[in-house]
Design goal:
The protein is 21% helix and 30% strand.
């Protein structure tokens, strides 16, 4: 993502996901962000990882979470909601 100025792009992060992201980022090196992307193929699917902004990338603030979304993934993730579900170990 080259910036957060695109007013047509909307991404929601639920309170549970926001809490989980903050916990993960607290254990990472400074400047780390959440990268949300789409793996292309016959059935595109989302992916989430911790990363650092590269070059011109500017993270956007999504409910207090610094998030990067690349330009290609944006068309799939527009108006998506990210949630967190835990499962027993």
């Amino acid at each position: 993502m080259s910036g957060s100025g695109d007013s047509t792009f909307r991404l929601k992060v639920t309170p549970k996901a926001r809490e989980a992201f903050h916990e993960v980022l607290a254990r990472q090196s400074p400047g780390s962000v959440i990268r949300i992307y789409v793996v292309s193929g016959p059935q595109p699917r989302p992916g989430i990882t911790v990363d650092k902004p590269k070059g011109h990338e500017l993270p956007m603030d999504v409910g207090g979470v610094p998030v990067l979304v690349d330009d290609i993934s944006r068309k799939y993730l527009c108006e998506a909601t990210v949630d967190y579900l835990s499962s027993p170990e």
